[in-house]
Amino acid sequence: MVITSQKKHDYKKYVVNSNLQYFKPHATKIEKTFSEEISSSLNRSSKFVNPKFFYDKKGSKLFEKICLLPEYYPTRTEISILENLKKNLPPFINDKFRIVELGSGSSVKIRLILDIFVKLQEHLEYFPIDVSEILTESSEELLRDYSNLRITGIMDTYDGGLRFLKDYDDTKNLILFLGSSFGNFSPDDGFEFLKKIYSTMKSNDLFLIGLDMVKDKSILESAYDDSQGITAEFNLNVLSRINDELDGDFNLQNFKHSITYNEKHNRIEMYLKSLVNQSIVLSKPNLVLNLKKNELIHTEYSHKYQISQMTDLFTQTGFEIKQTWFDEKKYFSLTLLSKN
Fold first, then answer.
1. Cα separation of 23 and 160, whole Å?
2. CA 7 – CA 251 distance, rounded (Å)
């Protein structure tokens, strides 16, 4: 293991046991970043909250519930593709690879990848990268089920995790970005993020990414506005997090979960709608937020892709497309990429 002195300075290392360690940015750095970003994004005419802030511990648990909802097709369709990778992925990873996962969450889907690797490698190495504290819980659960697994967690943003990974050592990486999280980026930011992945990768690394495909509007809207109200609770929870961590006084009863499908841009748009004229105080960033009735706080885009869009995006970034897999209805895709 090679970690530069700068990386050591930025992160605190926690050793749980011989098979589990994780690195976490110093608490002051995390708090400052959250406070600065929230203050900046809410203190403007078109207010927004970055969707990465959904995933505190409660938000991560709520997202697990969303994944089990009958309306929420992405998880089950992606799992069906992953199950078929048992025979399709090994030809690409016949040498020793480490698994790196961006946004590992509860580590449900990673088990399907680990089950493939168990048959190929005597010892498994896994680097989950996630902003949520749930990383430690899910890692301990994985170690109970995989005795030959060694985990190094990075509790940070994608950008921070990629900086940590770059030049870490010479081991080949299979980088995973599962789920539909890539769709949260704007087209320009998504392109820049792919370039960042590309620059992080060594020449023999591989990258497996999930994309949600364009489909019927009614299917999409039901997936993001479920009948049980779990997605609404998930959306509103970001205000609870701001209250808890930045000493805010958001009254959640004064907001409503709101979504629409923008057909021109092939994306779900998710908002929190203010139900009244109101004034909110965030003490830590010293911000007073004034909202009018029906004013929107944007919380998420979820872009959907055509096959031609997907191909252009990857090739323009410089990737070589090794293989793309779909579910039976072509609702979702997984694409394996390498550096050109």
1. 11
2. 39
